[in-house]
Amino acid sequence: MSEGSGREASAGTAREHRVRQEPDTRSAWLVRHEEHRRKVRRRTRFAWLVVSVALALTVAGCLLKPVVQDALIVSRACDGALAQGALEELLAGSRPGGQSSTTEQRAGSYRCGVIDDEDRLVFSVHTYTERDAIDRRMAAYTDDRSAEALPAGLPGYVIGDSGHALLLRCPGRGKDAGRTGRLLVRVHSSAALPAQVRAGAAVAGKAAEKLGCGAKPPAVPARSAAGAGPVPLAKTRGTACAALADLAHLFPGARAEVRAGARHSPLTSCTVLGPGTDGEYDHRLLQLRGWYGDWAPLRQATAAKGTWETRAHKDGRPWLVEREGPGTGIGWATSRCGSEDAGFELRADAEAEPSGKRRAPSREEMRRVLKAFAEDQSERHGCRAPRTPER
Question: In CA terms, which of 22, 29, 185, 332 is 20 to 30 Å from 6?
Fold first, then answer.
């Protein structure tokens, strides 16, 4: 065989080999290509999954951030005293915006406050333990005709529309000028009375603990007790406002608001309420109040302003005067409870348009009800027999 014929035979053999190998090579390439595509798809899906999770976590974080912030403020407000739903009641649908609290043990001062997310004051507390500071502020707080004792037997009273005050025993801080230590808790809040009273009692207990008062803290009243409404006059028998029961014939259909604190409470108030134009019992017809503490004479002086009894109160004598016609009067009886003063106040307000079934009390009826109230309160508080107005 010639050399040319040999090369042709070799080339033919190579072509036959390549033809035989091409299907196998293509199949392998297809397999590798498919595997590569699957890997790319897996990586793409994984990348999208990571992005989706990251996005979901970011959105969830943005949504949860306010919730976490609110929960943190609530848990810290007034050193945790408002954590059991009290702050939510005060906020009434708003969100908390911030809180602060400070304790000055030596000065006997505790302060705390909460604002909402619009920087409006929701609730604040300031305490006093020094005797003169307490007496000055008690005298200032009582210079208000609308002052009424707190509901649920709490030792304090409402101060107009600006909040309320609580006066607690604080024996752990010793005596001040011969008087057992006390803690005055001034609460500022424009919230509904039941909500602010519950919050005030809770924070007063925390303040007493922080300042080492060593006395049993006030019980936080239930929601129903903190908002208890007026009762028929006949149902005041056996209560601290029993003197009102004998006025049922003067005020048919009227109701009594009974606010009597514990033995050491600074105020007891008993108010006869008539229905207003909207049907609510908010028309004050007659009020009895018992003031307990060295600030009582200052309250008497305030009550005597504008009457000819100004001299009588300076001598500590009881008095009763009619003003602006029959049925409108102011009266005062006095006593001593231990080493401190006590005063018993009557204030009667004749209606602008008396009901046909209702008449204003006479001077003698006012004198009798003030005497009955002063005697009952003196016995309940362990006071001396009261001095009451004469006929």
Answer: 22
